[in-house]
Amino acid sequence: MLSSIFHEMWFKQMCTSKARLDGKTVVITGASDGIGKETARDLYARGARVILGCRNMKKANEAVEDIKNNPPTRITKDEYKNNVGELAIYFLDLCSLKSVKDCAKNLLTNEAAIHILINNAGTSVPYEKTEDGHEIILQVNYLSHFLLTLLLLPKMQLSSPNCRIVNLSSIAHINGDIDFYDINSEKSYTQYRSYARTKLASVLFTKELAHRLKEANIHGINVYSLHPGLIMTSVLRNVLNAIFLGTVIDFVLKLFYKNVEEGAQTTIYCSVDEKAANETGFYYSNCGIATASPKANDRQYAKKLWDVSCCLLNLKPEEDFIKFLETVSHQMF
After folding, report:
1. Is residue 232 predicted with pLDDT exceeding 80?
2. Given strand 221-227, what is the order of strands in its sheet?
3. Dihedral of the CA atoms 71, 75, 81, 84 (nearest 10)?
4. In the predicted model, is pLDDT for residue 155 greater than 70?
């Protein structure tokens, strides 16, 4: 894995698109700090109405104030002052499927449109189960985003064309493997293995969703997964600790770290770039299409994950995707 990290981290590509998002509404999960906050800052600077989906409301309010007062480094404060969009906060706790449903219902009720959904939030913590009975990393990093996406898709259909769903994965997905018979890691568990499998799940979900949208003849919604880079967030620190990287290796890795603004660039690229508007279902790194692992490109693996995810949410998988989305909405609300 380390050789892949070195390869991926050597370059720090910045998103060069100057696209504006005036009149567009963006939802970002986990936007109170880290990559999520920097993504919100950039898209707010482009004129978007940016909704921060957060669990910690104090941190979310502090993030809003920071975003309002400090522009991205690419523009000056004077340019920033008169060309920004709007900021809003919605409560979202990905540890609770009820909270996911409530947040989705509030978004569908209160927002006229949703053009971009960025499933950014993530965690890497020791083993525990959520109130819903799922292993916490699995639910926060993947399952809750799977549900949120399904619930918001009908609104995005009405908001299309030029809608995008962006799923944050990681280069760690190359070490991921999903045991469908021990989905909550009750028989075998390591913190890093759980994290890696959720990042593989994000890539598989992206590819499967893109496939199902195409099969259902639903146009105007593109789907992306990405590796943001090596950023020393609390999540990465927990991951490094979980795989027992020594201080020497940790020191070497620091040579390749991106700051959070650099780490947000591929998310921003997938959200706004004009060329990316013609692409869907791909995995990205450093603002361009990258090569995902062989497992991430296995359609049968992706389909099985989809079916298992539906079972975890007590949903019945259906081949008719439009009918399936209607069923999800009726059942969850």
Report:
1. no
2. 86-91, 49-54, 25-29, 116-119, 163-168, 221-227, 282-285, 288-289
3. -80
4. yes
In terms of Cβ atoms closer than 10 Å to its own Cβ (0-12, 13-18, 19+), residue 198 is: buried
pTM of the model: 0.92
Q: What is the predicted pLDDT for the residue at 203?
A: 98
Q: Would residue 195 show up in a list of annotated catalytic residues for this protein?
A: yes
Strands 116-119 and 86-91: unpaired
Which residue of the set 90, 142, 192, 195 is catalytic?
A: 195
For 181, 197, 285, 288, the CA distances from 122, given in Å and listed in that order, are 23, 13, 18, 22
Closest CA to 105 of 142, 54, 152: 152
Cα→Cα distances 120→32, 87, 215, 235, Å: 11, 17, 26, 12
Q: Cα 92 from chain centroid?
A: 14
The confidence score (pLDDT) of residue 157 equals 97
Token pair recorded at residue 129: 């189960």
Rounded mean pLDDT, 35-50:
98
More confident residue, 95 or 238: 95
Instruction: Give me the amino acid identity at 190.
Output: T
pLDDT over 50 (residue 3): no
pLDDT at 141 over 60: yes
Residue with token string 């390749």? 256
Instruction: Check: CB of residue 83 under 8 Å from CB of residue 56.
Output: no
